[in-house]
């Protein structure tokens, strides 16, 4: 059974997603009932919601919506990774509210959609350091060219648990390994960073990627971080860009077919349960 640490839900009738208008392939609802049906068929036993970069005034409204879905009978949802704005001076108050909410398991600010300078300011870095001791994680979503910025942030916050999204966002379509490989190795040397095996099928050629195209990126990420510091995520519905949820689940089972039972169980669910105290 799989635990999905990276589910996006899109409800355009309830929230505003400014970026969706620029991504026609994703500019549609992605609702929990549809995901739950597919999850039951694919062996997904639970999930965390990953923020979808809603309009800033609606960040906490998104969390409240997820809490409603968590309260549904037999809901698979176990918590939310909330969006945040660490570059703002009011972040400490936001963090206090998030840390006191048992539904919130972590925070994320996607860094490849903002200027690189955003994460280098003292305000941003010191605000992330405030997360130490809260039990909340911080997801890093960065391009390979930004791995050095992620490393600087991690080093500034040694007592914060970070999670590197999507195997560090490699350029699978170009079969490019540099500077991605160097960044993965450097980040894996920091004990407070875990890596998420997710998203990679969306980075291959949508018409022609194969299992062997993505295998090196998954294998190198797993080898660098070790079986105790990797978690699995669907990146649904973004994974539809590379074939969809069922394709990614099948690929996951194939990619890990030669792993030991302990290694598979660690990736599939056990590490997530430990990391987010589920």
Question: Could you explain how this protein is built, in words?
Answer:
The protein has 278 residues and is an alpha/beta fold. It has a single domain (2-275), classed as TIM Barrel (Alpha-Beta Barrel). Helices cover 36% and strands 15% of the residues. It has helices at 32-42, 59-70, 91-99, 122-129, 147-156, 180-188, 211-225, 245-255, 261-275, and strands spanning 2-7, 44-50, 77-83, 104-108, 137-140, 161-164, 193-197, 230-232. Strands 1-2-3-4-5-6-7-8 form an 8-stranded parallel β-sheet. The relative contact order is 0.14.
Furnish the topology, listing elements before pairings.
Layout: E1 2-7, H1 32-42, E2 44-50, H2 59-70, E3 77-83, H3 91-99, E4 104-108, H4 122-129, E5 137-140, H5 147-156, E6 161-164, H6 180-188, E7 193-197, H7 211-225, E8 230-232, H8 245-255, H9 261-275
Parallel strand pairs: 1-2, 2-3, 3-4, 4-5, 5-6, 6-7, 7-8
Helix pairs in contact: 5-6, 6-7
Give a summary of the structure in a few sentences.
This protein has 278 residues and is an alpha/beta fold. Helix content is 36%, strand content 15%. The relative contact order is 0.14.
Count of β-strands? 8
Multimeric state of these chains?
single chain
Helix content: 25-40%
SS-based class: alpha/beta
CATH class: Alpha Beta
Morphology: globular
CATH H-level homologous superfamily name: Metal-dependent hydrolases
């Amino acid at each position: 059974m799989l635990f999905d640490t990276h589910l996006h839900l899109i409800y355009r009738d309830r929230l505003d997603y400014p970026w969706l208008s620029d991504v026609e392939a994703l500019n549609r609802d992605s609702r929990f009932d549809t995901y739950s049906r597919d999850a039951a068929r694919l062996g997904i036993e639970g999930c965390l919601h990953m923020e979808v970069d809603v309009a800033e005034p609606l960040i906490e409204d998104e969390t409240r919506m997820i809490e409603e879905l968590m309260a549904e009978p037999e809901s698979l949802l176990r918590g939310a990774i909330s969006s945040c704005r660490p570059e703002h001076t009011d972040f400490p108050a936001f963090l206090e509210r998030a840390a006191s909410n048992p539904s919130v398991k972590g925070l994320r600010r996607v860094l490849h959609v903002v200027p690189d300078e955003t994460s280098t300011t003292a305000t941003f870095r010191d605000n992330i350091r405030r997360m130490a001791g809260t039990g909340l994680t911080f997801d890093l979503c960065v391009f390979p060219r930004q791995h050095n910025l992620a490393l600087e942030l991690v080093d500034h916050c040694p007592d914060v648990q970070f999670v590197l999204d999507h195997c560090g966002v490699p350029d699978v379509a170009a079969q490019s390994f540099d500077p991605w490989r160097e960044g993965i190795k450097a980040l894996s040397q920091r004990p407070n960073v875990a890596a998420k095996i997710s998203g990679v099928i969306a980075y291959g050629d949508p018409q022609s990627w194969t299992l062997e195209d993505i295998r090196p990126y998954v294998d190198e990420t797993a080898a660098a971080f070790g079986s105790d510091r990797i978690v699995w995520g669907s990146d649904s519905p973004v994974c539809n860009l590379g074939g969809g949820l069922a394709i990614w689940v099948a690929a996951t089972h194939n990619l890990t077919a030669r792993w030991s039972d302990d290694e598979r169980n660690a990736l599939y669910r056990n590490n997530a349960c430990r990391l987010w105290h589920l």
